């Protein structure tokens, strides 16, 4: 069968790579794809925008596409699943009503409160004066969030009252576009963050292996927030006992509450958790899609064919398909453009990717494309995800960094301490 993957990041390269390992998949088409998917055997790129629903539909219907897998949150929030399903196409990814769980932090917070899911205390405001008054009553540190999709940049952890008030002003003055119509003020939680990505068919919901991201740009988890500078899996802090509680207190409650609202949610439900030093947890946020870069460390460990799981979700029979895993660990390190997450240049030629890849190292492209000379060049802030696997974290992380030694482009930057928590524990 032919599968179409919507998106152009590292997550989508990993999805295409894993889908092509499924025996039934003969071809993957990536829309628009990147330099990695352009060179992936069995894969081709289609130069359409992720929100060109009519173009995607026309191509899929004309070219016998059996399944559409949607990677990014933006087309999901705009209703790509609703549109394509109306054309008779099979789609993996929630409908627009379900995608609100990521597209509106206020809506997600209300759902968590209705479901009784443990989460941070919060309040929602529509004008700056009331938000600032609330901040004054609560004190700092405090978290200020733009309500809608802001490309991962709409969350400000304010350590002072001045920072909190400046963040409120920035949101209401339109710095985050339409995401600034509401502001969500939350208590500041402390601990370690863990990403729990779960697959659901709207009835059954089952978690994949927990992963831990490294969001800060600087070593020692310092500096600005990014889309993610690296990740590892499975995250040891998410013990089997904790995951059992997440299943009952978060995942099952969330999907039941969505169902009670008449929302047929089929796809990925991603819970971002804060785990306290005492071992308790609260939900920071929900996302409506695979995580990035978490997907790049979860999928290499997945033994069950990905296609089998996706079809089981779409066809509402997830309870019938077991999820099995390879033993060991995986780690990915992001090679970024100099200046990221601020201004950076594009078009820098990348060398050494083929030399980096081995039986235990896979390079997933994120911000890359092919230039007119068919060279792979930089085309984004996060350029590559170099993923290593091994029997333990020490081996997996070492493999990722060994692979990075072969890769060069002007201005390359990456953190040299990815996995520092698990290495110190090991």
UniProtKB/TrEMBL annotation:
Cofactor field: Mn(2+); Mg(2+)
Pathway(s) annotated for this protein in UniProt: Purine metabolism; IMP biosynthesis via de novo pathway; N(1)-(5-phospho-D-ribosyl)glycinamide from 5-phospho-alpha-D-ribose 1-diphosphate: step 2/2
Alphabetized Pfam families for the sequence: GARS_A (PF01071), GARS_C (PF02843), GARS_N (PF02844)
All residue ranges annotated as the ATP-grasp domain in the record: 109-315
UniProt enzyme class: ligase
Catalytic activity: 5-phospho-beta-D-ribosylamine + glycine + ATP = N(1)-(5-phospho-beta-D-ribosyl)glycinamide + ADP + phosphate + H(+)
Statement: the UniProt record of this protein carries the keyword Nucleotide-binding: yes
Family: Belongs to the GARS family.
The protein, known as: Phosphoribosylamine--glycine ligase
Gene (name only): purD
């Amino acid at each position: 069968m032919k599968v179409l993957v919507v998106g152009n990041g590292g997550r989508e390269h990993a999805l295409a790579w894993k889908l092509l390992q499924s025996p039934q998949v003969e071809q993957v088409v990536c829309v628009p794809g990147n330099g990695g998917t352009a060179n992936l055997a069995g894969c081709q790129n289609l130069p359409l925008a992720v929100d060109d629903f009519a173009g995607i539909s026309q191509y899929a219907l004309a070219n016998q596409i059996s399944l559409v897998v949607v990677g990014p949150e933006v087309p999901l929030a705009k209703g790509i699943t609703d549109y394509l399903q109306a054309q008779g196409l099979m789609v993996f990814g929630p409908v627009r009503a379900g995608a609100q769980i990521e597209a509106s932090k206020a809506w997600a917070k209300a759902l968590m409160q209705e479901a009784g899911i443990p989460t941070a205390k919060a309040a929602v405001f529509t004008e700056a004066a009331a938000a600032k008054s609330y901040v004054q009553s609560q004190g700092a540190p405090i978290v200020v969030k733009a309500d809608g999709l802001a490309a991962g940049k709409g969350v400000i952890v304010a350590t002072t009252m001045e920072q909190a008030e400046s963040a409120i002003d920035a949101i209401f003055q339109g710095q985050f576009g339409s995401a600034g119509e509401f502001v969500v003020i939350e208590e500041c939680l402390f601990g370690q963050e863990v990403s729990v990505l779960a697959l659901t068919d709207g009835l059954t919901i089952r978690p994949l292996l927990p992963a831990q991201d490294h969001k800060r740009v600087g070593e020692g988890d310092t500096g600005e927030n990014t889309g993610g500078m690296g990740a590892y899996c499975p995250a040891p802090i998410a013990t089997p006992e904790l995951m059992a509680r997440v299943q009952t207190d978060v995942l099952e409650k969330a999907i039941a509450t969505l169902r009670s609202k008449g929302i047929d949610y089929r796809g990925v439900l991603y819970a971002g958790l804060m785990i306290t030093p005492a071992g308790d947890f609260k939900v920071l946020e929900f996302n409506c899609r695979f995580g990035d870069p978490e997907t790049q460390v979860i999928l290499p460990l997945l033994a069950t064919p990905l296609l089998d799981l996706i079809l089981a979700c779409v066809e509402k029979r997830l309870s019938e398909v077991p999820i099995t895993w390879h033993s060991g660990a995986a780690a990915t390190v992001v090679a970024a453009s100099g200046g990221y997450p601020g201004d950076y240049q594009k078009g820098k030629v990348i060398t050494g990717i083929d030399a980096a890849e081995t039986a235990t190292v896979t390079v997933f492209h994120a911000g890359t494309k092919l230039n007119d000379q068919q060279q792979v060049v930089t085309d984004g802030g996060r350029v590559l995800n170099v993923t290593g696997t091994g029997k333990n974290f020490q081996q997996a992380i070492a493999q990722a960094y060994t692979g990075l030694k072969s890769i060069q482009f002007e201005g390359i930057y990456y953190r040299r301490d990815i996995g520092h928590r698990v290495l110190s524990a090991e």
